[in-house]
Design brief:
The protein has a domain at 134-272. The longest helix is centred in the last third of the chain and has 32 residues, at 193-224. The protein is built from 10 helices and no strands. It has helices at residues 3-27, 55-59, 74-91, 96-119, 124-144, 146-170, 178-191, 193-224, 239-242, 246-261. The radius of gyration is 20 Å and the shape is globular. It binds zinc ion.
Length: 272
């Protein structure tokens, strides 16, 4: 099939799944998925033309048709990112079973990212489902390289979780949440030992760059003008109290994972 057709089909499918993921995030623990959607402020029911992924949000300029209250930019962003990532899988030369597992993994990682941003919590069942799917997707390669490959895969998850678990233990949960260590388990299974550890390391680099460029000035300004204290009890800036680490782990993982799917060399590692 021509690549442009696959990109279009997977992208459109991603828009639909993305809009479903928004509903899952919104309703987790509150209601069961299903039923009619309404405005969160005024309860006005949404028409079908208000529910077209990305397009409706832009057409409404991010405001409710009935009451004019803001509709979070989360909705179009989740839909667009799911579409782009699905299209990347569609254009890859992965086998169809691997593509299906990859799409589910992407959906889970997007769920975890947004949930962690909103609530600074990563639901265990999502991390563990990700770990299981990552293990399954990697095991098809591991089995090909015999017992050493299988053993190497089995320890890849705990190996990548170990540094984050240690940070959680040492800081008693102040620098790092235990949820981040559970998430890294799946990252290790998905990417393997060396590449997985690189992705965890690179998450700290992304986190540091974003914190210094955007979040540090922001919290300084807030503290300077008395809007809030800079860290609890004058403890200063900590990644745990200010920003969830899960989104950085996932951004790094998706980048490194797509690079390996497309056969691009990972910096500092000799494997492709
Ligand atoms: Zn409204």
């Amino acid at each position: 099939m021509p690549v442009i057709f696959l990109v279009g089909t997977f992208g459109l499918f991603g828009l639909i799944i993305g809009s479903f993921l928004n509903v899952v995030i919104l309703r987790r623990g509150a209601r069961t998925v299903g039923g009619r959607s309404g405005c969160l402020s005024c309860g006005a029911p949404l028409r079908w033309y208000d529910l077209v992924p990305v397009v409706s949000w832009i057409a409404l300029r991010g405001r409710c048709r009935a009451c004019g209250s803001r509709i979070s930019v989360q909705y179009p962003l989740v839909e667009a990112s799911t579409a782009v990532l699905f299209a990347c899988i569609g254009a890859s030369d992965l086998s169809i079973p691997m593509q299906i597992i990859s799409l589910i993994i992407i959906a889970l990682l997007i769920l975890i990212t947004v949930y962690d941003l909103r609530h600074t919590i990563i639901p265990d069942e999502w991390s563990y489902t990700f770990a299981i799917l990552a293990f399954i997707s990697a095991s098809s390669f591991a089995i090909g390289s015999g017992w050493t490959g299988i053993f190497s895969l089995i320890i890849a998850g705990p190996l990548c979780a170990l540094p984050l678990f240690a940070l959680w233990l040492i800081s008693r949960g102040r620098w790092m949440g235990l949820g981040d260590a559970k998430l890294a388990l799946g990252i290790g299974f998905l990417l393997g030992q060396g590449t997985g550890l690189f992705a965890v390391f690179f998450a700290f680099v992304i986190g540091a760059v974003i914190s210094v460029c955007f979040l540090l000035p922001y919290s300084y300004v807030r503290a300077r003008f008395g809007i809030t204290r800079l860290g609890a009890g004058g403890a200063g800036f900590t990644m745990k109290s200010e920003v969830p680490f899960g989104p950085f782990l996932i951004a790094s993982t998706l980048l490194v994972w797509l690079m390996t799917i497309y056969g691009m060399p990972i910096p500092f590692l000799n494997i492709t």
